[in-house]
Sequence to fold (119 residues):
Amino acid sequence: MATIEDVRALGSTLERSYEVRVRGRLKFRVGQLVYVAFSADERAMEFAFPKELREGLIGGQPEKFQLPSPSDMRFHWVRSTLAALEPGEAREFVVDAWRMVVPQKLSRAYDLAHPEGPA
Fold:
C-alpha cells in the first residue's frame, strides 16, 4: 500500500522537479508542466501517462487505475488509487511521468545514476 510519503521524497529529488500546493493539492512540476498530482485527501495520485497506452493500463487493473476527469481526457493523464499501488510501483510511475516532461538527456542521466530503478 503506497502513501504520499512513499513518492514525495522522490519527486523532490528528480532534476528540475519541484513541489507546489494548488488549492490544497500537492503537485510536482517541471517548469509549468505538472507531471504528478495528489487529490486533496491524498488518496488518489494522478500522473502523466501516454494516452495511447491509457486504456490498456486501466482495462487491465481497474481497481488501481481510472480515467482522468472529463476535462483532463485531452491530456496524457491517468488517475490511480494510491492505496492499491505498491510503494515501488508508485515510484516507478512518478519517474516515468517525470520522463515525459524533461529532456531525454536528463532521463538518460537518471538511468545511469540509478541502474536499479527508483529507490
In short: The two ends are 16 Å apart (CA to CA).
